[in-house]
Amino acid sequence: MTREDIPIVADEDVVRVRQVVRSYAQRAKLSLVDQTKLVTATSELARNTLTYGGGGSAVVELLGEGRRQGVRASFRDDGPGIPDITLALTDGWTSGQGMGLGLSGARRLVDEFDLDTAVGRGTTVTVTKWSR
Amino acid sequence: MTGVERIPILKIGDVLLASIQVDLQDRDVLALQEDLAEKISATGAHGVVLDISAVDIVDSFIGRMFATIAATSKLFDAHTVVVGMRPAVAITLVELGLTLGEVRTALDLEKGLAILAELGEQAPR
């Protein structure tokens, strides 16, 4: 299996996302540090999907591009969307109870980061990490 | 829905030891925070050791809970030391931008207990 869909509707789904991403990261032969970074980033994003998006789903994919392999994880919700993307990506800014490191921190931990959001239309965040 | 995973809290002298051996759900961490506060209050422990040597990721929620546990413990005059952080977890935490607040860290349980003993001597009661 090179692709897995995971619904995110409850607390334990965040743990499930971490476990699936970990196993994909191992298959893509990411180093232990890179595995840990990717799993941590996706843990932040899965929790955002649950907390701010009101639930949604994750898609985890194994990528092959020439000799390098990677893992891409995409988090989608139909929540309220993010009105100010620059603000949401600022360290320490939070609209909720968190520390405001979720989005900005996750972005630092991955190789590619894409944020697609519109107020009232939901949010999709996609992150990718490649083997070195 | 699975239930809350209760992390056992052991008492060694006047130190409480919680060794985290499971993949933590958010509510498990919240439960640990409450259980520790109650146990410190009941035992008058002067130190708390959180052993995370089996933990393979610490994200901002879990990290914040460690800081909250330390802050709560301080209200009961107890210090908190996190021990056994894996190198990959440490590197990731720095890049994530997370600081652990008042939480002391030590390489292993032995060094953690030594720090607590030292802190206990500085403030005799």
Give an overview in words.
The complex is a heterodimer of chains A (132) and B (125). Chain A has 132 residues and is an alpha+beta fold. Chain A has a single domain (3-130), classed as Histidine kinase-like ATPase, C-terminal domain (Heat Shock Protein 90, 2-Layer Sandwich). Chain A contains four helices and five strands; from the N terminus they run E-H-H-E-E-H-H-E-E. In chain A, helix 1 (11-27) runs antiparallel to helix 2 and helix 2 (32-51) runs antiparallel to helix 4. Chain A is globular and about 40 Å long. Chain B is of the alpha/beta class and 125 residues long. Chain B has a five-stranded mixed beta sheet, sandwiched between helices. The longest helix of chain B is centred in the N-terminal third of the chain and has 18 residues, at 26-43. In chain B, 36% of the residues are buried. The mean pLDDT of chain B is 90. Chain A binds chain B through residues 10-12, 14-15, 18-19, 22, 32-33, 35-37, 39-40, 43-44, 47, 91, 98-99, 101-102, 104-105, 108-109, and chain B through 1-2, 23-27, 56-61, 64, 86-89, 91-92, 95-98.
Keywords summarizing the entry:
heterodimer, A: 132 residues, alpha+beta, Heat Shock Protein 90, 5-stranded antiparallel sheet, 4 helices, globular, B: 125 residues, alpha/beta, Transcription Regulator spoIIAA, 5-stranded mixed sheet, 18% strand
Instruction: Give the strand content of chain A.
Output: 25-35%
What is the 3D shape of chain B? globular
CA distance, first residue to last residue of chain A: 22 Å
Tally of individual helices of chain B:
4
Q: Give the end-to-end Cα distance of chain B, rounded to a whole number of Å.
A: 45 Å
Per CATH, the class of chain B reads Alpha Beta
The percent range for strand residues of chain B is 15-25%
Largest sheet of chain B: 5 strands, mixed
CATH superfamily of chain B: STAS domain
Characterize the main sheet of chain A: 5 strands, antiparallel
List SSEs of chain B in N-to-C order. EEHEHEHEH
Class based on secondary structure composition and strand pairing of chain B:
alpha/beta
**Can you count the helices of chain A?**
4
CATH architecture of chain A: 2-Layer Sandwich
CATH topology name of chain A, in short, is: Heat Shock Protein 90
CATH-defined topology of chain B: Transcription Regulator spoIIAA
Q: Please state the average pLDDT score of chain A.
A: 91
Query: What is the helix fraction of residues of chain A, given as a range?
Result: 25-40%
Q: What coarse outline of chain A follows from CA principal-axis ratios?
A: globular
What is the subunit arrangement here? heterodimer
